């Protein structure tokens, strides 16, 4: 964590603020989840906000890491913060927070050469944040995070001087007062006796901003599950707040059955048409982003239609569809407790096709976009979502072993028994999942899955992005690379020929089953060519082919 306080709003202040905001949301996550009753009482607002900010932190840290000497500009750090939040935004609350951060970044990065800004710039950034977030929501509702954000901007406008600390503190106090008033603005909050969960999350983020510029923690504590503010604060005066279970029966009844979220590459005009289409399909519509990349969030009854609308507008990916469930808080206003299953598998997968394959096998999946691996918080959330007493975790990437280990350790502190199998490729995960038997003793199942994964050699065929030294010699940008067990073994110019050479090398040591996972960019005839080669040259070997979708590598190969 960078040293606080910060004098000006520069790149280091962005980094410090993001880190402090993540810590603050981490402490308040469970309490915010507990008071989440609007728009759906699904107890995940705190978690969604945490995961959104965690993605922003990762993006900012990546920018700082890229500088061997010196540090990034304010524009670099602000854009990274906004981009990270956009691609990692979760749920209604996280999507709105991503737009709030994007609005701030638009002001902070307006002059790409400016090293820092003062309180005047912070005031403008907070105003742009509140206005852009309100514009992103199809039907703004008062008594929500939008109200709290607008109040923060109004209070910041009234702060005198150019000191960032004074402006941040004014914004925080304005937000705190507005948060206390939310039960009087929204009936569902008043019935539950709680403040708005999204607004409470924003208060934590603004409290981190105060600490960034003053070095002093904002005076808010929400002990236990009752989420109270310090004595004397207007939020805490005489408002008893319920436990998690008490919040479940006060959600809005009769709403749509599905939450649909996806990232979308599309032009502005297409997104305008998409807004109209989705607005007619459901509610809780929020579309945030710009410059060709958008995050789309909507609640609908026809999830397929919502995705199809995205396909018509551009290229949707990282599609997440959550069924609120018959008889849950959204569809009936009453949440029924779900009993934990005994055992589940959680797996990281590199493409939508494999996510479907793993899902059909009963696994809970975390989609990893090429170049943007999931953070530990996202893995922990997937373990929670599996709702099991015992979980087998498959990271399916050698680079994720430390992240997965941290997630497993966190889940264990919550009473979940987690076994981490160090799978280094999705094809090893497929082999492990194939022998998974939930009825066996946990240790026996883990040993069997680990053995199957370890007996599977893995390879991938990809295109080199730049010139570099490899185990097979020097490759040039555009060369086709065949990697076996993580090391470059073949450098070629033709995708199919390179894949054939890789497959021959792998099968020279024997094998019984070849697994091929095709990416979207793989040649159309490559599967047929490779199947024919196996059939003609390796008589005792079977081949199975899967479509991986947009997975980064052109082809994944597994040999058991």
Automatic annotation (TrEMBL):
Residue ranges of domain DhaL in the record: 12-211
Pfam families documented for this protein: Dak2 (PF02734), FakA-like_C (PF13684), FakA-like_M (PF21645)
Single GO biological process annotation from the record: glycerol metabolic process
Cross-referenced SMART domains: Dak1_2 (SM01121), Dak2 (SM01120)
InterPro entries cross-referenced by the UniProt entry: DegV_domain_contain, DhaL_dom, DhaL_dom_sf, FakA-like_C, FakA-like_M, YloV-like
SUPFAM superfamilies: DhaL-like
Domain of life: Bacteria
Any one GO molecular function term: glycerone kinase activity
Protein name: DAK2 domain-containing protein
Organism: Streptomyces ferrugineus
Lineage: Bacteria, Bacillati, Actinomycetota, Actinomycetes, Kitasatosporales
